[in-house]
């Protein structure tokens, strides 16, 4: 009887049939939950610590800002540096409301308002943000600022003097006094509503 002593050839297993583990529905759900939590935390940080929305209420900043417009307020810029003249700020007013006004005079400066003219340290300053409004009022035969003058005073340390652009209809530092730094919410950066007026706020 013959015996077949020939060895059988070695056949390497087909690795293409191996499968990789697939994420279960449970793990995918957990990944979504983590992503949503992280997004929520970022929104809270941005909302409460970096930027905040503000709705303009009233005519005190016309002709540059109007009732119902929505702004983005930068809440950290004044943690880095002090306010500058011409910047538009939001601050906590004495009656518990938030006001929007423009920085006019800085700590240590003297400020005086005479009609449409504003003097800082005895020198009249340019007011490009209301130049056209002042010119239009002159053509109509009256002053743009119809409120009483503000007698010269020195701005205390750590405070600013602010006024609304609508000089004849604004309750500002002329009535409520100087604004302490710790009452300033931040600087208005962007108009984001209505859509037709989306723009950065220039100073």
TrEMBL record:
The UniProt entry, under InterPro entries, shows: LexA/Signal_pep-like_sf, Pept_S26A_signal_pept_1, Pept_S26A_signal_pept_1_Lys-AS, Peptidase_S26
- Under Enzyme Commission nomenclature, its number is 3.4.21.89
Q: What residues does the Peptidase S26 domain cover?
A: 30-193
Keyword hit for Protease: yes
**Which locations, inside or outside the cell, does it occupy?**
Cell membrane; Membrane
Q: Name one Pfam family in it.
A: Peptidase_S26
Q: What is this protein called?
A: Signal peptidase I
State the organism of origin. Answer: Paenibacillus alginolyticus
Q: Which gene encodes it?
A: lepB
């Amino acid at each position: 009887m013959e015996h077949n002593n020939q060895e059988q050839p070695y056949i390497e297993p087909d690795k293409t049939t191996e499968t990789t583990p697939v994420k279960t529905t449970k793990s995918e759900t957990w990944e979504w939950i983590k992503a949503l939590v992280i997004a929520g935390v970022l929104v809270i940080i941005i909302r409460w610590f970096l930027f905040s929305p503000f709705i303009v209420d009233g005519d005190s900043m016309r002709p540059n800002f109007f009732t119902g417009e929505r702004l983005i307020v930068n809440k950290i810029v004044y943690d880095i540096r002090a306010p500058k003249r011409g910047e538009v700020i939001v601050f906590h007013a004495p009656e518990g409301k938030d006001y929007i006004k423009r920085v006019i005079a800085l700590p240590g400066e003297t400020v005086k308002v005479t009609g449409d003219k504003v003097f800082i340290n005895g020198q009249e300053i340019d007011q490009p943000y209301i130049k056209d409004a002042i010119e239009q009022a002159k053509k109509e035969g009256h002053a743009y600022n119809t409120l009483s003058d503000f007698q010269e005073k020195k701005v205390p340390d750590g405070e600013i003097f602010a006024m609304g652009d609508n000089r004849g209809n604004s309750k500002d530092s002329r009535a409520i006094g100087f604004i302490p730094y710790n009452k300033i919410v931040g600087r208005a950066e962007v108009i984001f509503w209505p859509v037709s007026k989306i723009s950065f706020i220039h100073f």
